[in-house]
Automatic annotation (TrEMBL):
Protein name: Putative membrane protein
Transmembrane segment boundaries: 80-109
Domain of life assignment: Bacteria
Alphabetized UniProt keyword annotations: Membrane, Transmembrane, Transmembrane helix
Chief place of localization: membrane
Provenance organism: Proteiniphilum saccharofermentans
InterPro entries for the chain: DoxX
Membrane topology reported for the UniProt record: Multi-pass membrane protein
Pfam family, one: DoxX
GO cellular component, one term: membrane
Subcellular location per the Swiss-Prot or TrEMBL entry: Membrane
Amino acid sequence: MKHNTIKSDYSNWQISALTILRVLIGWHFLYEGLVKIYTPGWTAKNYLLNSVGPFSSFFKSIAQSDQILNIADTLNEWGLILIGLSLFVGLFCRLSSFFGMALLAFYYLSYPPFADLGVEAYVEGNYWIVNRNLIEIAALLILVVFPSSHITGLDRFIFLNKKNKSDNNPS
């Protein structure tokens, strides 16, 4: 008799905590993307033009080209939405977590929370080196190292299909 379950070494508490973390981060990404899509005339132009830190010239150059800015705005909006949706429903979470870390790294590097920069604009929760972007990067890393979407997300159906195929085709 076949069992349509995936074995896990995680406790129920661990699975629950990881799932809650994944869903909350997914909601945050999804919400941020939807706000940008539904805000008439939203653009990252001012955010990029006011960036500081060692990579500010790169971010400012994006804002100075209308074509590149349009691409960056579109990638930002839809990247947030797709990463958020993926994490929220638990589909392709490992890949989405990597993309989420990359996107958050761009946010972090555009306004790095370093004391010598003396920046107040656009910096929420600046606590010298550690800010919410860095914390969310670390949380996504936790989701990569301890995945749960194969147990509590739509990835479960992909893993079940792979498991069932391997059970039917013993080598």
